[in-house]
Input
Amino acid sequence: MTEGSVLQISVSKGGVPKLPLAEALVTPLGIDGDLHRHPEIHGGLRKALLWITSEGIEELTAAGLPLYAGALGENLTTRGIDRRIWRAGQRWRIGETVIELTKMREPCSQIMIYGQNIGLAVYDQNVKAGDPASPRWGLSGFYAAVVQPGSIRVGDRVELLKQALDQAV
Output
């Protein structure tokens, strides 16, 4: 699935959870007003946004984790996109904004408030090795750089613009 929509846009003053906004301005450093408790780890030009799918959150809640949109610190929660097709180098249009996926997010200690085993639930050695066949692929979210800043709103269309050089859907 290469098209979907924005379910939630989320920001915080640092840490998790991030709280919802109806719309936001996306700059080269991410969503205007979003802060990071550990800027040496999160944020910056290559990790300006964190994207997670609502379907992935639903998988994790079905497994007993107390999650919801924004809980894992993501800026964008979408519906209708298959997280298993995500690859570094893909470009996606979200509203007026264009982003490029840069790297899978490695879970940090901040999300352990949702359970001691959450890191294992969203990330494994296969994900770390770059294997999209892992059932955990994309559950921890994917970081993105902002290629074209602009506004985004809840309900905006999300569409794949450019496939990664080494992969076709």
